[in-house]
């Protein structure tokens, strides 16, 4: 009888969902998730035996959290997802993402499944070693605006690096436009940062945005590495989560990866559907190999709450067997004036990503960068 | 002065957004989108000249549609996106996806930008030619449940093909699991469909699911082609939109592509944010090269409204210069009993995707498939 129990190890992973509904509805919807995410077949047509008993997702716990909402834990056979991140995401939330009133809150993967993932190559400790910064929060800024020439962007990069910024990334909108073609931009910016490092003795990294069409992504990453980029900026919402994992896991690249949230906003737009901040910007981003997870901090141009940002911090460091903790990287409207308040919440293991705010303090970007660094060193 | 107007052609594309807010708020938010999606820089810091005048997105129209909602049309320089689908999606909705109360409704790309996209290789006419079905709606079903062996899945495929189904796709949850490893499954199912075609004289296509990790995706597609798969099932929410475009555009594959909505649900979960059904399952799916756009029809297990489904049909055939119209492919709970009602709305240029429903009519799947075909031929 297919599938034959011999292929099933009995190892299972779990996912926790918030489900809208009264106790009866919520339980029925939880059971339904188990079918929808696996066999996608009416329950009465599913063959008895290992498919019904093990392949189908099982409700292992359900708690009503209010008159019309419950939290359910479902377990799935590890074999349903195998070692593929694409299929893992599919089992966790593929079709169910299309059903209203169901939110993926968290995932819990056993070591046997996590073993298929390298996760972040550097993580917090590795990135600190690369940068030579053992304790304080790290400083990051972005090269912008779109429209600048490679030389203009490189001039900015030089000033930021001279002033002591740790990570200087391309703005996520810098692709391969005629204003600043990819190779010319990366070469100019990498050289500028190296020249500044030679003066300062710092280990500032230039991080090229390699987000690109599928058939050019790997090539861009190799070119970036060859031209001296010290890291890779990737938007998983644009290239797919697994493409980020593939780049992060590539030993020939061996570069830290910063994950950018472009096009991911819809996942967290509603508290009743989508994927939680904790799981999306924490757990999944880590599993996909990013060393830093960029997200818009509360109090800036975006609308994440302080609580949602704290959930991301938790997700970035939640125990996940051998998968390393990564840096929460709040951005999206951070200013020098808010650093104290932000540090108090985010703690020292944070990368502060300041874009426009770093241009505000004075017209002298070297001085502004130094001031940013002094503020953080004093914390 | 960077960037120098010489790089800017003056050609622009537009995007229409629904924005929450009273007239004053809505206009301010519309202007803000133009900055956020391009320079991502405070307006007063953007250099005067071509960057401010052309690179920044411009509000070209705004109409209040209610006391607290407006529709705004923004235009962007074609050079902001270049010929890259990843960057086009980034400009259309990257960061703005994270802002509440803004929905991407539609896109309008000029021929000079569309020229960078092949779009669907077959489209409606091409797929009809492949299948030898000039006029009636096409019939599609899925091989399931997950857990079945390659032989069990192939036995299903044989029966469906014998009964006259046009397109037999893997369930989107069939990846490379131990129950049915990719190569064995594809080989068995492709052979089964060919054997049935030899009997019937029909041109049924087996469509293998090649959704896979980034570093295996292309290889799976080539293997599928080599083993006799007549098409590719791809979930762009899992692999990224551009990965689907890359497969669809690959002349060495030259296979029709069916797009599956797994993990895309969050984009359409709220009427006030995300991306419209029209743009997501219509325009963007076409631009990304799918020949058929699978979505859950109203009245089944999911919650799309009839109006939303009709919007997808519009998006699947909306004039887009040389980009071909594609097949709306409603699924997600379609039954034999509902075919008349569905045909009246979807019209003849539709692929009806019936999974579980096709198992319900009787235990004889060949007979059920014949009945499905007869119903559709009589319409």
What order do the strands of the largest sheet of chain A run in, or round the barrel if closed?
Answer: 12-11-9-8-7-6-5-13
Oligomer: homodimer
Helix content class of chain A: 25-40%
Task: Provide mean pLDDT of chain A, rounded.
Answer: 97
Largest interface: A-B, 91 and 92 residues
Radius of gyration of chain A: 22 Å
**N- to C-terminal separation of chain A?**
65 Å
Low-confidence stretches of chain A: none
> What is the count of helical runs of chain A?
16
The biggest sheet of chain A amounts to: 8 strands, parallel
**Shape summary of chain A:** elongated
Task: State which percent range the strand residues of chain A make up.
Answer: 15-25%
The secondary structure category of chain A is alpha/beta
Order of helices and strands of chain A, N to C? EHHEEHHEHHEHEHEHEHHEEHEHEHEHH
> How many beta-strand elements of chain A?
13
If you had to describe this structure to a student in words, what would you say it looks like?
- The structure is a homodimer of 379-residue chains.
- By secondary structure, chain A is of the alpha/beta class.
- Chain A is 39% helix and 19% strand.
- The first copy, chain A, has helices spanning 23-36, 50-55, 78-81, 85-93, 111-114, 123-131, 150-162, 182-200, 217-226, 236-239, 241-248, 277-287, 306-317, 339-346, 357-360, 365-378; strands at 12-20, 58-66, 69-77, 102-108, 138-143, 167-170, 205-209, 231-234, 257-259, 274-275, 292-296, 327-331, 351-353.
- In chain A, helix 8 links the parallel strand 6 and strand 7 (205-209).
- The longest helix of chain A is centred in the middle third of the chain and has 19 residues, at 182-200.
- The model of chain A has no long low-confidence stretch (mean pLDDT 97).
């Amino acid at each position: 009888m297919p599938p034959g129990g011999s292929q099933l190890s009995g190892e299972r992973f779990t996912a926790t969902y918030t489900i809208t509904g009264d106790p009866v509805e919520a339980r029925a919807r939880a059971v339904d998730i188990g079918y929808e995410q696996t066999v996608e077949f009416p329950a009465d047509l599913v063959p008895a035996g290992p498919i019904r008993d093990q392949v189908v997702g099982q409700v292992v716990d359900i708690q009503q959290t209010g008159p019309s909402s419950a939290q359910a834990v479902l377990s799935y056979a590890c074999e349903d997802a195998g070692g593929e991140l694409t299929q893992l995401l599919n089992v966790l939330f593929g079709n169910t993402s299309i059903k209203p009133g169901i939110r993926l809150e968290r995932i819990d993967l056993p070591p046997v499944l996590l073993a298929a993932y390298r996760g972040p190559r550097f993580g917090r400790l590795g990135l600190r070693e690369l940068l030579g910064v053992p304790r304080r929060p790290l400083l990051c800024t972005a090269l912008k605006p779109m429209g600048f020439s490679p030389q203009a962007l490189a001039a900015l990069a030089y000033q930021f690096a001279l002033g002591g910024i740790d990570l200087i990334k391309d703005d996520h909108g810098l692709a391969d436009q005629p204003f600043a073609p990819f190779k010319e931009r990366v070469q100019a910016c990498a050289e500028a940062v190296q020249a500044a490092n030679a003066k300062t003795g710092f280990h500032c990294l230039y991080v090229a945005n390699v987000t690109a069409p599928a058939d050019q992504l790997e090539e861009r990453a190799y070119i970036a590495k060859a031209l001296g980029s010290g890291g890779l900026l990737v938007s998983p919402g644009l290239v797919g989560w697994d493409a980020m994992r593939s780049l992060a896991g590539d030993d020939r690249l061996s570069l830290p990866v910063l994950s950018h949230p472009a096009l991911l906003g819809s996942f967290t737009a509603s508290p009743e559907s989508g994927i939680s901040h904790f799981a999306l910007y924490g757990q999944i981003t880590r599993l996909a190999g990013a060393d830093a997870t960029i997200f818009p901090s509360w109090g800036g141009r975006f609308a994440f709450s302080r609580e949602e940002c704290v959930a991301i911090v938790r997700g970035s460091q939640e125990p996940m067997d051998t998968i390393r903790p990564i840096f929460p990287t709040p951005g999206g409207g951070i200013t020098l004036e808010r650093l104290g308040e932000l540090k108090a919440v985010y703690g020292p293991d944070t990368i502060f990503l300041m874009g426009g705010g770093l241009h505000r303090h004075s017209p002298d970007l070297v001085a502004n960068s130094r001031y940013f660094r002094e503020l953080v060193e004093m914390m």
